[in-house]
Amino acid sequence: MRFAGMGNLLKVLTREIENYPHFFLDFENAQPTDGEREVWNQISAVLQDSESMLADLQAYKGAGQEIRDAIQNPNDIHLQEKAWNSVCPLVVRLKRFYEFSLRLEKALQSLLESLTCPPYTPTQHLEREQALAKEFAEILHFTLRFDELKMRNPAIQNDFSYYRRTISRNRINNMHLDIENEVNNEMANRMSLFYAEATPMLKTLSNATTHFVSENKTLPIENTTDCLSTMASVCKVMLETPEYRSRFTSEETLMFCMRVMVGVIILYDHVHPVGAFSKTSKIDMKGCIKVLKEQPPDTVEGLLNALRFTTKHLNDESTSKQIRAMLQ
């Protein structure tokens, strides 16, 4: 009897270890193997523009003053022109961000295809194809940084609303403006939906992942969700294990790791039928939140807010009170 009990205990322990896979994922130096190179090159071509997108967004000042002056003085043609000339280049920039989100969407779907296909399990894929795992992480890292900057910049939506109102007014007066060749009505509608989201890039990735799952009907949904939960577990273990942390050569890698962990949790929560917070979730949510809470508050507040406000299932009845309390 005692041996049977021991056997059951071992089974439980093994299952727990299986639930939370852990290995070191080399976010700093992973290089593509020959098998990864084609997809890696394709994703790299997209990611090489990510830093300039962030720099552009960070430098985005908006045309608030010019718009206010134009609205307060509707008969002053000079002020109307000044506002319009300030807004047009900004709208072209916003179009560039939006088009980048479409490229990112395609890149993510290629990565998911590579990281979930049989015969390997998602854990084996991530362990074997570390350069692709690193690119997946870089997409998530970019996404959270982009959305943090966008959330702090209300000028984006004000500028775009003004642009759309002015275009509509001109259409009523049968005027055609050159910028309409650049941002026509259909493009403006799509951009409007994108920027209406609090976290537009994350929404794009969630939609892309959901779309990937529904398009690939022969691929079990677990292949995709296990890929996400494995990534979350690996990040958590790397953050809480001194031996792994000591392998990072830069403090930046810690922040990178935290952003990636939060990004995959949010994706998992949007794609998995019951989400990341339920008891059956393959993500150790308490452990992940604990790791974040152990960091200096000013560095992780944005990430905790992302878990509070951009997940789908946090307020479900199945979410334990303890997890909710941790995120209060």
From TrEMBL:
GO terms for cellular component: membrane. The keyword Isomerase does not apply. It is a lipid-anchor. One of its GO terms (molecular function) is small GTPase binding. Residues 23-324 form the CYRIA/CYRIB Rac1 binding domain. GO terms for biological process: regulation of actin filament polymerization. It is found in: Membrane. Its main location: membrane. Pfam families: CYRIA-B_Rac1-bd. Keywords: Lipoprotein, Membrane. InterPro entries: CYRI (IPR039789), CYRIA/CYRIB_Rac1-bd (IPR009828). PANTHER family: GH09096P. Belongs to the CYRI family. This is Family with sequence similarity 49 member A. It comes from Accipiter nisus.
